[in-house]
Specification:
- The complex is a heterodimer of chains A (222) and B (157).
- The longest helix of chain A has 17 residues, at 160-176.
- Chain A is of the alpha/beta class and 222 residues long.
- Chain A contains seven helices and ten strands.
- A six-stranded mixed sheet of chain A has the order 6-7-8-3-9-10, sandwiched between helices.
- Chain A has one domain (26-40, 69-211): P-loop containing nucleotide triphosphate hydrolases (Rossmann fold), CATH 3.40.50.
- Chain B is mainly α and 157 residues long.
- Chain B has one domain (2-156).
- Chain B has helices spanning 2-14, 16-36, 47-53, 55-73, 84-87, 95-127, 134-156; strands spanning 74-77, 80-83.
- A two-stranded antiparallel ribbon of chain B has the order 1-2.
- Classes of the chains: A alpha/beta (222), B mainly alpha (157).
C-alpha cells in the first residue's frame, strides 16, 4: 500500500474535509472526482504542503508525511497547472536548478522524455503551452523516479488526441514502474474509462470509493 | 544542507544579475556603515555630531544585511517578487534546512562587517583620545541589531 488517508479532516481557504479515508495501492490509477469545491485538490495539498493543518494521518509507504516531508516529496511527482517552477527560466534551467533536491535524478531520462514528447528545452516555462507544461512536469517526475504521481485537473481543456496520448503515457508509467497515480478530475467519463479505482467527493466527504464498475456496499455502481 | 548550498550555487549562476546588483548595493551600504563607525561614540570634540550619527551605522549596516540576503530570499519572476521558500515548498527539502543555510550566510557576513566595524570604532576612539568601554559596546550593539534584522527577515519569510 503506497498512500493511505486515515480519517483526515481539516479546513483550508474555505474548503473543508471531513473524515476522509481511502488507500491507493501500487500499480493502480486512482481517480478522485466531484464537483468544484468538493475538496479534491485539498487532498493533494495536504500531501504536498508541509504547512498543511489537518487532523488524522496521511501515510506513504507507512511513513507519516508530517514527520518525513522531504523524504516523501522525493517519491512524489506533482503535475498541475499551479505547480511551482521558475517560470522565467527555461525547462532545462529548472531541471538543473531543482534536481539537486532529489536523491535520484536522471538527467538523461529527463532529456530523452522531453525530446520524445517534443517539449522545447530552451523555452521559458512561461512560454510553454499548457500541454507542453504538463509534459514537462511528467518528464520531471519521471526523471526523479516518482513512485506516486499526483495529477490535479490536468486533462481539463485538453484536446481529445492529447488526452489519449496523456493517458497512454500514464499507463506506460504504471506498467514499467512500481508506481501509483492519484488523479483529481471533474470529468466523470474519464474516471469510468481510464481509472482502476475511483472516489467521489461531495462537500469535503468521500461519499464513495472503490473499484470502477463494481457496486459498493450500498449497491451503487462506482 | 549541502543540497541547499548546491542549489544556491546554481541559483547564483542563473540569477547572476540579481546577485551582482545585491553585491554592489551591499558594498555601498556596508562601506558607508563601516566608515561611519570610525566616528567614536564618546569622542569629546565631536560629541554632538556623533550623537546625531549614532543611528546611521545601524540603518546602513542593517540595510547591507537585508540587501545581501535578498537574492537568496526572493526572485523576480516576470516582474513579480516571489519568495524562494514558496518556490521550493513542494520539493524534497525541509524549510528548516533552507533557513539554516540562510542563517549561515548571515552569520558569515555579520562576522566580516562586525570585525571591520569594531576595528574602525576602536581606531576612531584611540585617534580621538577618547577610548572608553562605550566604544566596545557600541559596535557590538550595532552589529547585534543588524544581525537581528537579518534573522527576522529569514524567519518572517
Amino acid at each position: 500500500m503506497i498512500l493511505e488517508f486515515q480519517n483526515v479532516s481539516g479546513k483550508s481557504k474555505g474548503f473543508c474535509l471531513s473524515n476522509v479515508s481511502f488507500a491507493v495501492e501500487e500499480g493502480y490509477l486512482v481517480g478522485i472526482t466531484g464537483k468544484n469545491g468538493a475538496g479534491k485538490s485539498t487532498l493533494l495539498r495536504y500531501i504536498l504542503d508541509a504547512d498543511s493543518n489537518y487532523d488524522g494521518e496521511i501515510l506513504i509507504n507507512g511513513m507519516n508525511i508530517r514527520d518525513h516531508h522531504a523524504k516523501i516529496q522525493n517519491q512524489i511527482g506533482y503535475v498541475a497547472d499551479e505547480n511551482v517552477f521558475f517560470r522565467a527560466h527555461t525547462a532545462r534551467e529548472n531541471a538543473e536548478l531543482l534536481s539537486v533536491f532529489y536523491e535520484k535524478w536522471h538527467m538523461e531520462l529527463f532529456l530523452t522524455m522531453m525530446k520524445k514528447m517534443e517539449v522545447p528545452l530552451s523555452e521559458k516555462i512561461d512560454d510553454l503551452s499548457r500541454g507542453e507544461f504538463l509534459k514537462f512536469q511528467m518528464a520531471f517526475a519521471m526523471a526523479h523516479e516518482a513512485k506516486l504521481y499526483l495529477i490535479d485537473e490536468a486533462t481539463g481543456g485538453m484536446d481529445p488526441i492529447f488526452r489519449k496520448e496523456f493517458f497512454r503515457l500514464l499507463h506506460q508509467i504504471l506498467e514499467k514502474e512500481d508506481t501509483s497515480i492519484l488523479m483529481v478530475t471533474h470529468i466523470e467519463d474519464e474516471v469510468e474509462m481510464q481509472m482502476d479505482y475511483a472516489g467521489v467527493m461531495e462537500n469535503g466527504r468521500m461519499i464513495s470509493f472503490g473499484e470502477v464498475g463494481i457496486e459498493n456496499e450500498s449497491g451503487k455502481r462506482i | 544542507m549541502n543540497q541547499v548550498k548546491e542549489f544556491d550555487k546554481r541559483l547564483k549562476k542563473t540569477e547572476d544579475v540579481s546577485f551582482l546588483m545585491a553585491k554592489v548595493m551591499t558594498l555601498i551600504f556596508g562601506t558607508f556603515g563601516c566608515f561611519l563607525m570610525l566616528l567614536p561614540l564618546t569622542g569629546s570634540n565631536i560629541n554632538a555630531m556623533v550623537e546625531n550619527l549614532a543611528l546611521f551605522p545601524i540603518l546602513l549596516l542593517g540595510m547591507a544585511v537585508l540587501v545581501y540576503l535578498s537574492p537568496y530570499m526572493h526572485m523576480n519572476q516576470n516582474g513579480k517578487n516571489v519568495s524562494i521558500y514558496k518556490m521550493l515548498r513542494f520539493l524534497p527539502v525541509e524549510p528548516k534546512e533552507i533557513c539554516q543555510v540562510r542563517k549561515e550566510y548571515l552569520n558569515k557576513f555579520i562576522v566580516k562587517i562586525g570585525i571591520i566595524s569594531f576595528t574602525f570604532q576602536q581606531i576612531g576612539a584611540v585617534l580621538d583620545h577618547s577610548w572608553s568601554v562605550g566604544n566596545v559596546c557600541y559596535p557590538i550593539i550595532v552589529i547585534a541589531l543588524a544581525w537581528g534584522a537579518g534573522w527576522i527577515y529569514i524567519h518572517i519569510e
